[in-house]
């Protein structure tokens, strides 16, 4: 076999009205950049995958496959083989794997267990981790203790007397089961980040600059920058490790996707999990829950003007503590309410990829009104299938690796993706200064603001509340900024991408 290798590129559509219900949209993508190279054939999960220039390497901790699922391409190199996936599904074999899983996701645990005995194919489908993950997250909203797999976690919670070792150790291996969709999910969960995905580091880095210089050179022209040395006086930078946070927070629960978890339980989960999209601890009320957390950091001088503060307790969510294992992160998005943001790494390191507002990242498809975004299911999948395209782009993305003690400034409207390269702890805040106040007001008064606005219960009236509060606190500021903006529009300036080329921006500063 000399070249034909295919994997499934899956996309998702995220509806802001319902974070927990996500519609997955799948499509096939063929290309050499999506290949795994090994002995001139597509590998199954037990084979050693060599890390070549065209291929990908597995993590050293990657488990051997459980059910024997192989990529569909392998079927064409086994003459006479019949896909047991199809024979086991019967008349349902015409349905896509995604649709089969979506239908099975409507069943409860008991019916899934019964259906698993119908055929080997149903056994494989009904034991897929995403199905059991959804059952756990929908039914155990007050938290859970992860027990090695989502299925064993669910059974352990509802049937504590059951010996879960029976389901975590013994698995039926199915021969000749071919599925790109199921294989890719496993693959994305176990791939290492390729070195070439980490090499480009072209963000501007600054240390010790004045607030005036930051405003003039970055905030006003809406350019990203990585700031060094401005967290040195944070107690969080010295104190926040696992043991300290677990002891400090005790039984306080934090937001982890749709559930609430104690830090100790979340760290137990993150130590064991090997999945495509690890759960991310992302809590907007951490400082209210544990005031000592909020007192151990301070907003860097560059970001202290935050006009949303005039709303007091009615302001939208604006600050979060973020904790996640390697591989966790945020897929491409634009920050809420047209705000700008800063993200400070306290422990670990993060890979950032940013595109300006007028450049939609490859593989990302926002709806015309901005209410929905279709993108690859996981961050790793985006790197596998789309990152290579940016090499030939004139307007290359801004990239960097942000390490502990460093801060990334994310200008309003910029698309960005973030993936943790190791277990990481960070603080991020969104804010509205006078430099992007008009953008925020325009966003809040859009016709579909009730769908687009986030982080507040009163989406409909936020525009009027915010505008009136700003005018009361800073009389005439909106008119002044409007006049200034009109003058800017009349002046033609070179864009950032025309004035700066990738080769002039900076050099790679991080190594492994």
From TrEMBL:
Keywords of this entry: Iron, Metal-binding, Nucleus, Oxidoreductase
Tell me which residues make up the JmjC domain: 288-448
Subcellular location, in the record's words? Nucleus
Question: Which cofactor names does the annotation list?
Answer: Fe(2+)
Q: What is this protein called?
A: F-box protein
Q: Which residues form the F-box domain?
A: 89-135
Q: Which SUPFAM superfamilies match?
A: Clavaminate synthase-like, F-box domain
Question: What family is this?
Answer: Belongs to the JARID1 histone demethylase family.
Q: Which GO terms describe its cellular component?
A: nucleus
Q: Which organism is it from?
A: Senna tora
Q: InterPro entries annotated for this entry? A: Cupin_8 (IPR041667), F-box-like_dom_sf (IPR036047), F-box_dom (IPR001810), JmjC_dom (IPR003347), JMJD6_ArgDemeth/LysHydrox (IPR050910)
- Please give the Gene Ontology molecular function terms for this protein: cis-regulatory region sequence-specific DNA binding; metal ion binding; oxidoreductase activity
